Amino acid sequence: MTHMISVSNLEIVGRRRHGPAVPIVRDVSLDVAEGQMLALIGESGSGKTTIALSLLGHARAGCAISGGRIMVAGHDVTTMTAGELRAFRGRTISYVAQNAGTAFNPALSLGQQVIEPARVHWSMTRAQAEHKMIDLFRALALPDPETIGARYPHQLSGGQLQRLMAAMALVTDPEIVVFDEPTTALDVTTQIEVLAAFRSVLADRGITGVYVTHDLAVVAQIADHAVVLRHGQVRESGPVAEILGNPRDDYTRELVAACRIPPRTTFPAPVLDRAVETVLDLSGVIVGYGRLDAAGLPERRILDEVSLSVPRGSTLGIIGESGCGKSTLARTISGLQPWAAGQVTFRGEALAPDIARRTREQRRRLQIVAQNADMVLNPAWRIGASIERVLTFFRGLKGAEARNEAARLLDMVRLPHALLDRLPGELSGGQKQRINFARALAARPDLVLCDEITAALDPVVAAAILELMAELQRELGISYIFITHDLHAVRAVCDDVAVLYGGKVVEHNSSQSLTTGAHHPYTRLLVSSVPEMRAGWLTEAMTARQAGRPEPLQVAPQGGCRFFPRCDVRMPGTCDHNPVPVQILPGGARIACFTNAAALVPDGDDGSCPDFHNRPISGTDSPEEVRHDDPASF
Amino acid sequence: MKVRVSLPSATQRVGMLFGFWLVLAMFGPLLAPYAPGQIIDTQVFAPISHQHWLGTDYLGRDLGSRLLYAVRYTVLICTLSTAFSCGCGILLGVATTATPAWVEQVAGRLMDGILSIPSLLCALLVIAAFGDSLMALVLTMGVIYTPGAYRTSRALALRIARMDYITVAMARGEGRLFIIWREILPNMRGPLLADVGLRFIYAVLLLSNLSFLGLGVQPPLVDLGSLVRENVLGLVYGAVAVVLPTIVIAVLTVGINLVLDATAGRRS
Amino acid sequence: MSAGLARLVARRIGTALCSLVFVVVAIFFMTAALPGDVADMLLGQNATPAAAQALRHSLHLDQPLWLRFMHWCAGMLHGDPGTSLLTGRPVSEMLAPRLYNSLLLAGATTVVSVPLALLLGLACATWRDTHFDRVMTVLTLGVVSVPAFLIATVAVFVFAVQFRIVPALSDIRSIHSVGQFILTFAMPVSTLASITMAQMIRMIRACMIDVFSAPYIEMAVLKGVPPIRIVLHHALPNAIGPVANAIALSLSSLLGGVVVIETIFNYPGLAQLMVDSVMLRDVPIIQSCALLFCLTYLFLTTLADIVALASVRKGRGA
């Protein structure tokens, strides 16, 4: 077999202004056969993007290729002149960047940018290029392929931009395309569509590809071979099935394990309907901005009549795509975003909307752990000072007493005491997130609000944090609200889950029943969009999805259900006008949908009792199959 | 390969350089062999000699002594006015992140107003109105550079106030003063120091220009700008009396600017 | 879309008007409210109480301040800025030729400095961290860190005194040919231009480096787009706003430079008149000159902001 790409003993060094050269990539060798897709797997800082860019002969500022050979489509990239590289890039090999939102020039129309590679390489006339572009748009399932090129980047969604970027890469019919985490910044429901679009155009054209990612489930869908990288070195390489199914390297094994966190198995009590004291209860909370309507409520709502409850000692997951109001919910509960209507009850007491009017005791018992570990610890304070401040503030501990308690808290989050005298800048992301947790625990809270705490962490580190959370819950009996967009994490740590869409809770259910029983159509879309770490999942999911699914509408609904335009069981005339009813199922789950709960159940479940733990998934004779396709029934 | 010994940090270097000038301004005149106004030689624009290390000026006064006094006035006036502008600017800039919106509105409009008069013009106007006493000079330059300090510190404070650790402190229920003083200010130190340095340079430039125009420091007092002005006739002979003060101004401003530039480069 | 832009522009103009009011009030009250008694100063030794009283009356100095302010504003609106205290000539008559001269100087400087600074700033950013860039950085840093008079003095010393290429003073009445024009203007314009350019180059370089670090520039490189096209087609459209701002800010610092340069070269412009008037406390002239300078400054900064707003909006497809 001929190798389209052949990299041997690649070395890349980076250097700061006058500092010594630091190796970023060490002795990396890899081969890609023609028409194959190679995945470069690794966490942040593993050198995967650096290697991908080196295939195009590009090194970012401060980096330099210092050794090795890179053969791409018969060219020795390391010996090419600047002019040769220009002719090579975008023609023989092209690149799809991670964040299409910033990789497109905001000042130029998209069409101009998409055909630019063809124009600068003189490979075709403008008319030919535009024709080609429209064909590609069509193949990538973009809406309005004829006219979308006239628009500007800010007018399109992330998923659409990412497909346009792929069109830009393919317009010159290159032999190789490098994808650099093209779906990482997207919501899962969008990711699946983009992945499917990529895969189909690549397969049609027999293009050789390199796919950079940290997501093993995505690798399983799209790649043939994989290389696992860590600290700039190859840990393991081989066919994808081999690496995912039978990893030989310790690190690879860890990585695979992190993606297969077992769903939570230990439950304190039956979910939702148990007669346990609720720690936190939200009812009818409205947060918004803009003019006030007749009832004195804001016109534009970020949160619309949100009702939730968290039983003592349990974890409530809040899930939804970006812009659904998750972060506003966190700010609302923590008293940083006053609400316009509704009530929040904490341990039986009504909470004031404004932090200043909450009692010290209330503030102590409700702690937040915020998303970005890099910004959550004051960089001017030593770790010890950050924790001791909380101890002094809430518990009046001072001096040696506070110091000892801070050390005890570090034990609790499994960190060495030496860190107390460090500054946050000297810690790793995972360590900072643990400190962050320890600081919340220092107040001895009843409820900890975790806002996307694993989003910025590498999977192995994130898995360890989730494990720590569960452990602390067992030891201390605290409750959590766990805000995330990661369904795996929800299943791993949550008892209940609330699904947020457009500022509304569309479903409040037990987290274990997410794959079975009656669900809101959005929940089903969400669940069915999360890639699974096995080959063939994407094909199955897409076939299931394409059958009988109505086209998404481009118009925003005027009233009624916000999910209406994307819903697969929508009933025009009803769903888009009337207020949405909330159905309470016998198990206590709540679903806000017009369609009868019984009809929302996939695969012949009777829908009356969503308390099934490991209910087997059957998938054939649903009575509803004709009326609406169910993406979850694979 | 350059060998690098452990150098003082950027902040320390700015501090050391500024400290040197301040010490020179305070104690330099003690080294002056003559009184600044004393005419000691009949030869004007005398070259460097054993007797007059730096020669004499257009009236035959000892240039070395006058230069030491000139450094004193330039550095002290500019230090005071920078202290005034940065003190007011930073205080207002940081405080308005925590005050009601209308305070910020009023302060912002006022600053915009001051900013909309070019600085040299503004100085000319004030001098036309209040005269050119040292106090007036310090206050004028102080007011002129307050809006700049206000804007920088406000932008910095706002950026830091958006950080999650501020959110956490607010959720904990910390008071506004604690948040400003303990959480925000310590993180502004580096960039603020650079800004203060910049304002100091601006002040030196403005004062020198004013004095050169004859509207700044007035005789019998002397600063670097007026030293150049009074000896400018010596330019034709390339006299030390006009070249040296020029060099001293350049060394003062370029030196601080170079150090600041290096710190800015390092931060980014 | 364009309605949004119009609203933003309107708001920016509103802010400018606010500043204008501030400037007018500040100029009047700073100059008119506080100078020692002008009448006494004018009459000097011969001041008798009666004469001083009469003079005060003729100058309307016996009226309350706010009334004088109203008169002054009304006069300005009608294009009548009053009469000089010292010469007794109408201010407008004294100002007009000076304004023309100053505009000539500023205009010539702008024409020279803006394109050159754009080119050099772009070049510095494009060839960042090369020898060319380092030399330019040190040069521009040097120029912006020394007072304007210093540049001018050194220039006079080198070109007029040492090499005698150009006259040290600008006598614009003696211009009869293009060659003379260039010789006369060479010194003040080149000094002024070097000061303005240094600042512009620094700011344009910073703006462009900012744009060059954007992911879409890397994307363009990876598409095989030639460097010139990257600079002109990809980077420049995104830098228009900040660059316009940099140019406006530097041009307004030119106003400060003009004051110094006109004095040094004895150039009969507005700024020189103003400096002289400050020394002589000729209030009406100071007021008018200051107002002219502030108006120019306000106009430039506002224009730059509007250009920036429009360019951002255009990029957003408005």
From TrEMBL, chain A:
Q: Which GO terms describe its molecular function?
A: ATP binding; ATP hydrolysis activity
A Pfam match is oligo_HPY
Q: Using the UniProt annotation, give all residue ranges assigned to the region (Disordered).
A: 609-634
The organism sits in which domain of life?
A: Bacteria
Q: Which intervals hold domain ABC transporter?
A: 5-256, 280-527
Record GO cellular component, one term:
plasma membrane
Query: Could you tell me the keywords of this UniProt record?
Result: ATP-binding, Cell inner membrane, Cell membrane, Membrane, Nucleotide-binding, Translocase, Transport
Biased composition, Basic and acidic residues: where in the chain?
A: 624-634
- Do you know which SUPFAM superfamilies this protein is assigned to? P-loop containing nucleoside triphosphate hydrolases
Record family assignment: Belongs to the ABC transporter superfamily.
Q: Mind telling me which NCBIfam families this protein's record contains? A: oligo_HPY
Protein name, as recorded: ABC transporter
* Record organism: Komagataeibacter xylinus (Gluconacetobacter xylinus)
Automatic annotation (TrEMBL), chain B:
Q: Which GO terms describe its cellular component?
A: plasma membrane
Keyword entries, A-Z: Cell membrane, Membrane, Transmembrane, Transmembrane helix, Transport
Query: Pfam families under this entry?
Result: BPD_transp_1
Q: What is its main location?
A: membrane
Biological process (GO) annotations held by this record are: transmembrane transport
Q: Which InterPro entries match?
A: BP-dependent_transpt_permease, MetI-like, MetI-like_sf
Q: Give the residue spans that cross the bilayer.
A: 14-35, 73-95, 115-145, 196-215, 235-260
Subcellular location as annotated: Cell membrane
Identify its membrane topology class: Multi-pass membrane protein
**Ranges of residues in domain ABC transmembrane type-1:** 71-260
The entry's family comment says: Belongs to the binding-protein-dependent transport system permease family.
Question: What protein is this chain from?
Answer: ABC transporter permease
UniProtKB/TrEMBL annotation, chain C:
Q: Which biological process, per GO, is one annotated for this protein?
A: transmembrane transport
Q: Which residues form a coiled coil?
A: none
List the GO cellular component terms: plasma membrane
- What protein name applies here? ABC transporter permease
Write out the similarity annotation: Belongs to the binding-protein-dependent transport system permease family.
Domain ABC transmembrane type-1 residues, every copy: 99-304
- PROSITE patterns recorded for this chain? ABC_TM1 (PS50928)
User: Per the UniProt record, which residue ranges are transmembrane?
Assistant: 12-34, 103-126, 138-161, 181-201, 243-265, 285-312
Q: Which InterPro entries match?
A: BPD_transp_1_N, MetI-like, MetI-like_sf
A Pfam family this chain is assigned to:
BPD_transp_1
List where in the cell it is found: Cell membrane
List keywords of the entry alphabetically: Cell membrane, Membrane, Transmembrane, Transmembrane helix, Transport
Can you name the source organism?
Komagataeibacter xylinus (Gluconacetobacter xylinus)
